[in-house]
């Protein structure tokens, strides 16, 4: 995949800052959008998010109406507003264009590199997330496109999505295919234990320490297009996975939802990376490691281990 250069983004830089663009570097990550650091002629920098087909590493596939296609300028802007109103840190907007948004370059470091030594930033993150999760809605979905009142309950949505991921995993992973019936029964059993709910919290949707920048001691959330109202247990399962021993449980979470969503997310983290590898995504070893780790976690649930 060819990356954008100075000539491609010079007009964007001029519109955002009124200055000439000296250098462009595509930053690590970004499977659905391009993330570029813009260096201007005075040495200052900004960050450009670019949503174009040429920047999307994902192979074409049928989109999940709720989880799929969690990318795009409009989703970013809606999420930016929702998180800002909830009190979370997000990058300041500099320019909004048709398929490009420029935000401030916060510098700093990813929380991923600071987990063992910046307890203050981590503490602030948990406080911010608690505030975000307390913003609620009687309907789930994207803040700008909430699902109808009579939409299927969230656990039903998760179950159907997980069964689809199970089918896809069986086509690619013989070890999972050999346990298909038992895994489906496990999903349905966990789903059956979930009680109804009529209120949903605002969640980031994919919040790992690599999606948190620390700037002047404050956590700032990035990759925010997946923001939606949903069961907060969905977020907490992902936080468990990504933060490991640094994760902080909170009281009041539904253990039945946590159990269902753990298995569902492990299946997702097998199916997604393997599908991404069908394309030309460059960081292939990392995706293979994610898939292999989660294959193990999926099978662990049939061995009496806690998953």
TrEMBL record:
<dbReference type="GO" id="GO:0016740">
    <property type="term" value="F:transferase activity"/>
</dbReference>
<dbReference type="Pfam" id="PF01636">
    <property type="entry name" value="APH"/>
</dbReference>
<dbReference type="InterPro" id="IPR002575">
    <property type="entry name" value="Aminoglycoside_PTrfase"/>
</dbReference>
<protein>
    <submittedName>
        <fullName>Phosphotransferase enzyme family protein</fullName>
    </submittedName>
</protein>
<feature type="domain" description="Aminoglycoside phosphotransferase">
    <location>
        <begin position="75"/>
        <end position="229"/>
    </location>
</feature>
<keyword id="KW-0808">Transferase</keyword>
<dbReference type="InterPro" id="IPR011009">
    <property type="entry name" value="Kinase-like_dom_sf"/>
</dbReference>
